[in-house]
Specification:
single chain, 289 residues, mainly beta, Thrombin, subunit H, 3 helices, 32% strand, globular, disordered N terminus
Amino acid sequence: MAVSAPLPAQHRQRAARPRPGHRLLTRAVAVGAVAVLYTAATGTGAQAIVRGTDSSEPYPFMVAIPMTPGDGEGSMDAMCGGALIAPQWVVTAGHCAQEVMPAHPSGTVRVGSDHRNAGGTVRKIVAKVVHPGFDAAGDKRSNDDIALLKLDRPVREQPVRIAGSAPKVGADTRVIGFGTVVDDPEPGRWVFPDRLQELDTRRTATSDCMDINGKGELCTSSKVRGAMACSGDSGGPQVQRVGGRWELVGVTSGDGDYAVDPHCGSGPGIWTSVSAYKDWINRTIAAHH
């Protein structure tokens, strides 16, 4: 379920060795083609996120985070996702904000648009705070895959509320993102949609995912066979409808079965549980007020 950051949904591997966690960034480095993430063709097909569908409603809290290759080259066609949780703050994956990764934020974000390169509100990133427990350079998959981005000015879009607790196993959720709609291990075949994609999902048992921290991460499966978030979706939101409104429950982090199958749609994915980090989020925002 890679994510984009080029993490499309997450880095599929770290620079050092394969890791089921962050899909996008490291996956590109592992195959020696970081720039491919930015030069891949763009598509607008109805199926995306990998067998998802075009967004069916506005998501004013959705944030697109353009990424730049570590060497500064490439056309920058891929990105990470994020969620607006306060007028001036975005939560995303830790691997989408680390400078030591193969790619890093280009410096701006687009908030509240259902199109990747138009609409919404564009703001500059003035501060990046990665959770101190996240280790992008270690030889093991790191947990604590979460980070905060501070914007230069508040936006008018409505932030999403952070859920008070993680959804129960079996609970209905939804994931959204601009990640590749083509489920292929090779970055050269990825296709990133212009239109925001959504996919109905559910929380599944922690034991269904490999290399996962049950206290701080959510194992998530799709309701559609062969569908899941993928490269380019990293950092994006997993939400749950509570009392008629969406609440943020997860941040796209990695592939739940990458060790046995590199395809995104072959199994579950891993999301950082945002409610587990709510205290850290509040302390960080207060310290950077």
